[in-house]
Design goal:
- This protein has a single domain (12-279), classed as HUPs (Rossmann fold, 3-Layer(aba) Sandwich), CATH 3.40.50.620.
- It is 28% helix and 16% strand.
- Strands 4-5-8-9 form a four-stranded antiparallel β-sheet. It has a three-stranded parallel β-sheet with strand order 1-2-3.
- It has helices spanning 25-40, 61-71, 87-99, 175-185, 201-210, 246-256, 270-279, and strands spanning 12-15, 44-49, 81-82, 103-106, 134-138, 146-148, 152-154, 163-168, 172-173, 190-194, 217-221.
- The longest helix has 16 residues, at 25-40.
Length: 289
């Protein structure tokens, strides 16, 4: 089982949205959970804009996200960071993995990958050129179980990823590489995020190990779902937040996180509501399957 507790480090958490649109109730809930957990641990809460996929990004969305978080009282003591500033770091890691024999170029289009997104055509042994090919990393498939702060012991699937894309053929870094590199460089000790990413953690742990780094602790909270039981997202038509309704929005997010204010709790403004939430914070229970 993989140990996921950083050694005696001050708590550093983060919220890392992609600027593909405005925040909705689901993303606010995740931001709020990560914020409250950091503040309750007397730690730092960082904001990182994950802008590594320009074709999917919406113009002005990053600024709107920052404005929205501030309007809801979720402010970091540090300036936001942007993944587009870190490409040299990502490329350096890729080069390191190529030189160590852990990364290889793959020509397989999506239709030729298996259901886990893996290369199954032995591209590793073909000495392919970088042009128009994905760069993949060879990952361990052993000892990728971990203890989640919400879900407890999480077992790796019997067929874990043994290779994964870290640099895309479109000359863009992949999420796996960018998120691990940035969390390492930011000294993140704790990641609080939605449980839709629960099993993404296994291959992130494998990459941490390959890079010789200690992973953070993870807490995967239940995502907000719509009336059809689908994750609330831009793809499922989630409406953007109205910043003038910040108090109401935060109440709804807190109720989803299991902090039911009811009618007896008197919080008259955003500041008192956040203070109450900090005093009573605890991680929510996992969603029933």
């Amino acid at each position: 089982m993989t140990e996921t507790t950083p050694a005696a480090a001050r708590y550093r958490g983060r919220f890392a949205p992609s600027p593909t649109g405005t925040l909705h109730l689901g993303s606010l809930t995740t931001a709020l959970a990560s914020y409250l957990d950091a503040i309750c641990h007397k730690g730092e809460w960082l904001l990182r804009l994950e802008d590594i996929d320009p074709p999917r990004e919406a113009e002005g969305a990053a600024a709107e996200i920052i404005t929205c978080l501030n309007a809801h009282g979720l402010e970091s003591t540090q300036a936001p960071t942007w993944q587009h500033d870190h490409w040299a770091r990502y490329r350096a890691i890729c080069q390191q993995l190529i030189q160590s024999g852990h990364a290889f170029y793959c020509a397989c289009p999506r239709r030729q990958q298996d259901e886990l997104g893996r290369c199954i055509n032995h591209c590793k042994y073909k000495a392919l050129a970088p042009e128009n090919n994905n760069l993949r990393v060879t990952l361990s498939v052993n000892d990728l179980d971990f203890v989640d702060r919400v879900h407890g012991l999480v077992n790796a699937p019997p067929r874990a990823f043994d290779n994964a894309i870290i640099w895309r053929r479109e000359d863009l870094p992949a999420y796996l590489l960018a998120v691990v590199a940035d969390d390492i460089d930011s000294h993140i000790t704790d990641v609080v995020r939605g449980d839709d990413l629960l099993h993404e953690t296994h291959r992130q742990l494998a990459l941490y190990r390959l890079l010789g780094q200690m992973p953070p602790r993870f807490a995967h909270i239940p995502v907000v779902v719509n009336g059809e039981g689908k994750k609330l997202s831009k793809q499922t038509g989630a409406p953007g937040l109205d910043n003038t309704q910040a108090f109401t929005n935060l109440r709804q997010a807190l109720e989803h996180l299991g902090l039911n204010l009811g009618t007896q709790v008197r919080c008259e403004n955003l500041h008192s509501l956040l203070d109450y939430a900090i005093q009573h914070w605890r991680l929510p229970s996992p969603r029933l399957q």
